Amino acid sequence: MAIIATEADRDAVIETIVSAFNADPLWSWMFPDPRRRSEQHAGIFGLYVDSALPRGGVWMSDERASAAAVFTHPGEPELNEDSEARVEPFMRESLGAHAPAALETVHRFEAAIPKDQTFYYLSLLGTRADSRGRGVGMGLLAELTALADQDGQPTYLESSNPANNHRYERFGFNAQSRFTTPDDLHTVTTMWRDPVSR
């Protein structure tokens, strides 16, 4: 059973997400300096966690956050106004000459989001390195899709690692569209799942 994270869990959740995305092909490209990546990931992912926490949109698999999911409920923005305003300055300060390419990729994420529909939006799903292979992350995804089914709402996510696409497909997600980084080296697959009647 998922635990709804509180402010007291913030650091543990961010630590889990940072651990999960350290070697992700897209997010390691976005923040290419391995010496600074964990700190930078904590900064950028923290904006999403801080936006979702007050809305009950951060779930943990257990008290130590072996896995964590960050999502928005239907009709909610992914980032609150404060976090939205901090993305570009953070990336420009963190990334220097690489910032324009990384920011263009962020804009491509935003452009791909379905318009004129409501849905659960899974922003981040990650499992700590020492907890992988136990199904704890997929357990959170199962609970989120069950909630979406109960509410009669679709679910949307972006897969930044093609190796994970089949895992989402097992839960009923289908590829909706694809976009690449500006250098065409990495592909992001947007995925959509219609609700299932119980």
What does this protein look like?
The chain is an alpha+beta fold. The chain is 42% helix and 19% strand. It is built from 7 helices and 7 strands, in the order βαααββααβαβαββ. Helix 6 links the parallel strand 4 and strand 5. It is globular and about 50 Å long. The two termini are 19 Å apart. The mean pLDDT is 96.
Strand order of the largest sheet: 1-2-3-4-5-7-6
Quaternary status: single chain
Uncertain ranges: none
Q: Within the CATH hierarchy, at the fold level, what is the topology?
A: Aminopeptidase
Structural class: alpha+beta
Topology:
Blueprint: E1 3-4, H1 10-21, H2 25-30, H3 37-52, E2 58-60, E3 67-72, H4 81-95, H5 99-112, E4 120-127, H6 136-151, E5 155-159, H7 165-169, E6 174-180, E7 187-193
Parallel strand pairs: 4-5
Antiparallel strand pairs: 1-2, 2-3, 3-4, 5-7, 6-7
Helix pairs in contact: 1-3, 3-4, 4-5
Q: Which terms would index this structure?
A:
7 strands, 7 helices, 198 residues, alpha+beta, Aminopeptidase
In a few lines, what is going on in this structure?
By secondary structure, this protein is of the alpha+beta class. It has seven helices and seven strands; from the N terminus they run E-H-H-H-E-E-H-H-E-H-E-H-E-E. It has helices at 10-21, 25-30, 37-52, 81-95, 99-112, 136-151, 165-169; strands at 3-4, 58-60, 67-72, 120-127, 155-159, 174-180, 187-193.
